[in-house]
């Protein structure tokens, strides 16, 4: 009798030990996969990105300073109305990890977000705006050595018919209202492209007047000192500006866009609607004429495209930074001097890769559990035991 009891106790002890080992294995697999998919994958993927080299002809024997700028667009932080809470949590975590990893690895001097930072700024209440803003500031936190500049998008203040002074003011109170500034000799103009409707509305008229004034200042920088009326004011560096806006300049469609993150082939030839998908022809001509930019960067379409406008100004459409809008988000890295620039694209981890890893891990866990309870088909179980004994050797 005592021998039987001893045998049962020994059997229970072995069973308990095996279960503990299984639990330990499951915990290790789950933690490793979570750490990889939610943390280390960003380092692994972004580690491949490098600042492009810019040609640097020495000016008067001196090398021109190079500005390292990151351009991203359409983060679309969900508000209180749209989207599931889990979707919101996941997308914000992904963008936060991507942004913080990029800051740590790439060390940009300035980051530009080309509009549609928020998804519901066009209708959010004061409380909802404050909540969204709080989350934005946590996600896109940065040291004082990095500047963060944000362009107005239609989801931040509403389309033209929704846009109001109140919404523009609350946006500019946080992100500033400076439209023209210089960094390391590079002039930037940030346009409120939602106000380029051209219908003479108060906000539109003020925006156009401001752009004409910017145009005058840029022209002044090209005039010889002592020869013009510009002499009484500080001069901008002698450099054609980089134009940053949310809506792209007018183009008929994305038919000529290519690359892995261009719009899907079935959408590329769908004609764009002026003042909705892209700026009107008239507004685009005005911007090109007034500002004579050497480079234009825009957002809004969520897909990549490169366009050469009349007069030779190239425009780069920056794809969305959110996995809610794309499987393969990215951002642009720019090395800029007052006379030259070089751009390259940095891709973030693909959503497919992360999901495939999770599915593979789930299948592995299932096999582990079934093997423990010996519920696998006998041939599979035999193979599993063979592998295990082989690995233990
Ligand atoms: Zn937009």
Distinctive features:
single chain; 393 residues; alpha/beta; Purple Acid Phosphatase, chain A, domain 2; 5-stranded mixed β-sheet; 43% helix
Count of spatially separate domains: 2
Bound molecules: zinc ion
Structural class designation = alpha/beta
Query: Strand order, biggest sheet?
Result: 4-5-6-7-9-8
Total beta strands? 11
Residues in helices, as a percent range: 40-55%
Distance between the termini: 38 Å
CATH architecture of the largest domain: 4-Layer Sandwich
Main sheet summary: 6 strands, mixed
Instruction: Spell out the helices and strands N to C.
Output: HEHEHEHHEEHEHHEEEEEHH
**CATH class category of the largest domain:** Alpha Beta
Task: Describe this entry's structure for a reader.
It is a single chain. The protein is an alpha/beta fold and 393 residues long. Helix content is 43%, strand content 13%. It has ten helices and eleven strands. Helix 1 packs across helix 2 and helix 1 runs antiparallel to helix 9. Zinc ion (ZN) binds next to helix 4.
Quick synopsis:
The protein has 393 residues and is of the alpha/beta class.
Topology of helices and strands:
Layout: H1 2-46, E1 67-72, H2 85-106, E2 110-113, H3 126-139, E3 147-150, H4 154-157, H5 165-175, E4 180-183, E5 186-190, H6 202-222, E6 242-245, H7 265-268, H8 281-291, E7 295-298, E8 305-308, E9 314-317, E10 330-336, E11 341-347, H9 351-372, H10 378-392
Parallel strand pairs: 1-2, 2-3, 5-6, 6-7, 7-9
Antiparallel strand pairs: 1-10, 4-5, 8-9, 10-11
Bound molecules: zinc ion.
Residues 116, 153-155, 246, 300 line the site of zinc ion.
């Amino acid at each position: 009798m005592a021998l039987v009891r001893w045998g049962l106790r020994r059997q229970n002890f072995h069973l308990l030990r095996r279960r503990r080992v299984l639990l330990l294995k499951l915990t290790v697999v789950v933690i490793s996969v979570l750490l990889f998919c939610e943390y280390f994958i960003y380092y692994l993927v972004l580690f491949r990105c490098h600042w492009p080299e810019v040609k640097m002809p020495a000016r008067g024997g001196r090398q021109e300073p190079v500005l390292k700028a990151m351009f991203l667009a359409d983060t679309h932080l969900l508000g209180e109305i749209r989207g599931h809470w889990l979707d919101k949590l996941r997308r914000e975590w992904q963008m936060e990890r991507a942004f913080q990893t990029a800051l740590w690895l790439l060390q940009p001097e300035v980051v530009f977000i080309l509009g549609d930072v928020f998804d519901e700024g066009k209708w959010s209440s004061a409380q909802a705006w404050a909540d969204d803003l709080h989350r934005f500031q946590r996600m896109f936190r940065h040291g004082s050595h990095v500047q963060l500049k944000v362009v107005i998008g239609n989801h931040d203040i509403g389309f033209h018919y929704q846009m109001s002074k109140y919404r523009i003011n609350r946006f500019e109170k946080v992100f500033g209202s400076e439209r023209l500034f210089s960094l390391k000799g590079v002039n930037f103009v940030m346009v409120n492209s939602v106000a380029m409707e051209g219908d003479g509305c108060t906000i539109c008229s003020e925006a156009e007047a401001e752009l004409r004034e910017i145009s005058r200042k840029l022209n002044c920088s090209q005039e010889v000192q002592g020869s013009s009326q510009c002499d009484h004011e500080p001069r901008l560096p002698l450099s054609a500006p980089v134009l940053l806006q949310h809506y792209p300049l007018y183009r008929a469609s994305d038919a000529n866009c290519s690359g892995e993150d261009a719009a899907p082939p079935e959408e590329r030839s769908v004609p764009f609607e002026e003042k909705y998908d892209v700026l009107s022809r008239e507004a685009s001509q005005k911007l090109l004429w007034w500002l004579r930019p050497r480079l234009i960067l825009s957002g809004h379409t969520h897909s990549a495209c490169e366009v050469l406008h009349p007069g030779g100004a190239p425009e780069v459409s920056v794809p969305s930074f959110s996995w809610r809008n794309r499987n393969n988000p990215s951002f642009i890295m720019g090395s800029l001097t007052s006379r030259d620039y070089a751009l390259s694209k940095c891709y973030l981890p693909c959503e497919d890769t992360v999901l495939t890893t999770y599915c593979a891990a789930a299948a592995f866990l299932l096999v582990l559990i079934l093997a423990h309870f010996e519920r696998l088909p006998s041939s599979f179980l035999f193979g599993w035991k063979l592998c295990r004994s082989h690995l233990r050797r």
